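Course assignment 3, question 2. Fill in each field.
Student: A.L.
Task: Predict the tertiary structure for the chain below.
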Amino acid sequence: MSRMFFFGFGYIAARLAPHLKAAGWEMAGTTRTQNKVNEMWDAGVEPHIWDGENPIEKPARVLKGTTHVLHSIPPGTMGDVVMHHHRALVAKLAPRLTWYGYLSTTGVYGFAPSGLVDEDFQINPENATAKLRARVEKTHLGFLKNSNLPVNIFRLGGIYGPERGILTRIRKGQKQIIIKDDHKTCRVHIDDIVTTLLASINNPKPGRIYNVVDDLPSSGTDPAILACELLGMPVPPKFDYAEKEENLSLAMRAHFKVNRAISNQRIKDELGVVLKYPTYREGFRALVADINKPKSD
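Answer field:
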């Protein structure tokens, strides 16, 4: 019996779980609060409340029988909470695992001035969050070498999907669009992330790193304008980055200080992934069609 354990039952895990449930998998996972417990039970996932501040209660029992792990908890002040609290348990569990997926970010590449960046590009994280991610990646790859942890690392672009991304922000009243000519990033629809994870689970390649992005790197301007057009809403005022920089949060400044066009060729060549939404244009249109779909009583 295949058994998936989710370290962090978030947006991606919630979209992956129905596919595993349909295939007859057992599942368990962690959540920080009581709020998601019912949702997890409904999804067929045994819930365990864990805030990351202390070890999981009776972790060996909680993880018993686990064959697959998806780790999506972002690093915090103590670094990676899974390794911080349960390094020895992961080492002990590793040889019995079939697959271990760690969700990272394309942010670890830092600034790449031109051309497509692939997984062999030397990472150069430029902000504190990206540096933490890079450190956690290194820790997991070290476990592959020392404890046979069958880890694959997935560097995700900007995630969008139902109730997440620029369409949602526009609907909630985003008040401006920031323009920066040398700023280019990649994004990916949640369904294509799930497709990639399932392809990797079915064809694990321990130690491999995968960029999970769509085919069209772009600035944030064009997607925002298309979102407004599809939603039938006015385009917010556009401002040059230099005009607004001093008023932006540190996270937003960090976002605008990178320029990355990311290659997704490896997920196609090695995992056979065919993107359902090759660009944000198809993805946005599908999301808006769903938004406008008449709701049944």
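Instructor remarks: The first strand starts at residue 3 and ends at 7. The domain at 3-159+188-212+262-276 is CATH 3.40.50.720 (Rossmann fold).
Grade: pending
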